[in-house]
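Aggregate trends can hide what the representation actually does to any particular protein. In the encoding step, the backbone of a single protein was reduced to a row of integers, each denoting a local shape. The record that follows shows the chain in one-letter code together with its fold in token form.

***
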Amino acid sequence: MLPKPHRASIVFYVSDIARTEAFYNDVLGIGLVRQEGAEPFWLLGSLDQGLEVVFFQMDAERGNTPALIFDLAEGGIDDIVAQLSAKGVTIVTPVEEAPGGWSADFSDPDGFCMGLWQSAEKPRSLE
């Protein structure tokens, strides 16, 4: 059985990160915080109940975001992606470097894309 993720984030890919920062901070009052590790900076905010919202500036077709990203607290992303693949899950993006760690994307049976992320401080393999 795959380990249960301990947290989930909703990730948005936006066309203008500064405009997004102003809207969510000034209009909605969410209080996004600038983060380093991607060019340009990326934004992180927390909602009640611990749900995180994350914003990256990049070109993406409409409908590709928001994306649900599961945080792997213990690491093991390579093992988990291999297990998903062995179970017939479509791997959309193999494990690759991401801001602060590693990520991979997969789709569910209806084609909804989801992702995994783990900190660079955690081992990529638990075996």
Q: What stands out?
A: The helical segments are 17-27, 77-86.
